Task: structure prediction
Amino acid sequence: MATSQVLTREAETDETEVFDAVIIGAGVSGLYQLYKLRELGMKARVFETGTNVGGTWYWNRYPGARFDSESWTYGYSFSKELLDEWHWDEHFSAQPETERYLNYVADKFDLRRDIQLRSRVSSAQYREDTRSWDITLDDGRHYSARLLITAIGVLSAPTMPRIPGVETFRGQSCHTAHWPKEPVTFEGKRVAVIGTGATAVQTIQTIAKDVGSLTVFQRTAQWCAPLHNARIGEEEMQGIRARYPEIFARCYETPGCFVHSPDPRSALEVTPEEREAFWEKLYAEPGFGIWQGNFRDILIDPEANALISDFIARKIRERVKNPVVAERLIPKNHGFGGRRVPLETHYYEVYNQPNVELVDINETPIERITPAGIKTSDTEYEFDLIIYATGFDAITGAFDRIDIRGVNGRRLKDEWKNGPQTYLGVLVEGFPNMLMVMGPHAGLGNFPRAAEYSVEWATGLIRHARTHGITRIEATHAGTERWTEHVKSTGVGLLANDVDSWMTGINRNVDGKDTRKIMRYSGGYPAYREHCDAVAAEEYHEIRLE
Ligand code: NAP
Result:
């Protein structure tokens, strides 16, 4: 078979349009995957639900949405020209700029002609006879492709809370991930926010200055730390451009692909004075240093973790004037860093405003949403606007929403009922020719840095298949078992795995998501890449290639 025809599909006799590859999602990873498949000369189509590209940065247009990663570590690294052209306005860019950036990328590399917007994939069914995937959109259109590549993100399936009466509310209401494109005004309005995750923190600190009144309904307090954002001038941007190779090399070395990496010292081996000085320094610095660049043992040793938790608790007490409110804002059921740390800008000070109230719904649970507002066990609140910052069915949720069926009609959702099982976070046994970019078990971190590697590794596998006449790619049973067990072993001893959060697969607004699972590779990106590179170097020996 001629090289160029391997992994390509002949046109079928009916009206079904046929592609070499279908990519689901036009976000950070889907855009780059399309770019890379074009390099291989493949006929690819991206299906995207939104009316424009951008994924996370298209949907999450809530007030205050912005990076917690340094902007200059977040852009694509593959094109020097792009790096030279783009000026990041801020060290932690806001959503409109990032959305603009991803649109710029789509235009610059002429990606749009292969992106089909307003196209939600509702099902994908593997066909053994043609070794291809039948793909159906929710409007009934059908397509066929040799390869199915999921680039559907980690946090892309928003969930509403299971509170009775949500549909009865007569005012305006909205989930943060479905924020309207039309401007929403807050002036004089009585606003409720349900949730206190990273999204809620950004929303609350942004709208607090405008609202008539704000009531925050908190179920679990969060350990937040300052973001310390700043604008980037032309001269500074020039300096950043000159340092890009160094910056990306640094991100490549760190466990989470950030510029921050753990300090090799133990929190317990230094004097209390040294510890305090180090933590004061980290607290005053921009970004995730306090979480990702802290003493090496704060996320694994309960004693070290208790010390840093105490430090952050003291900061909260200093910043929040009312001691009762301060205590409510200090987490009691998990230590610092056990959940993804929200970075904030004057978040705690919001609670010093006389028009802001914090309701702990463990003390006074929400009973229902009423036509006028929210009824807790002791108060009936009236609101003009309710904001649901209630998070996502993370990591596997976006997969569950598509009816993905592999060999013999096996459903991916059923296969993963007790937690994902993957090979390298890329392949799933029984689902041949399906490749996941940033799938479960591939680790979490500074998303584009990890996604670029994920896309490049998947592209390497596709290139290998094309040059070797391979039309069927599938994870082996042994490889899957080994990888899944290895992923579990990387999480042993990590305090975060003993905490309920989206990272451990908990979302009580979704059936079956109430027990903790190992959803991500926790061995750090350098080790993850070492595994994946070794598999590629040995001609993908653990993958069944036919
Ligand atoms: P999240 O961290 O899962 O937070 C959801 C919040 O809603 C939690 O406080 C949760 O309480 C609450 N909640 C859910 N269901 C509820 C219910 N039925 N009743 C009352 N409260 C309920 O979601 P998120 O804030 O959207 O953030 C998710 C992730 O997105 C972040 O961790 C981060 O990785 C990413 N993100 C990144 C950025 C950035 O880069 N700057 C910004 C925003 C988000 P419980 O905690 O008790 O479940």
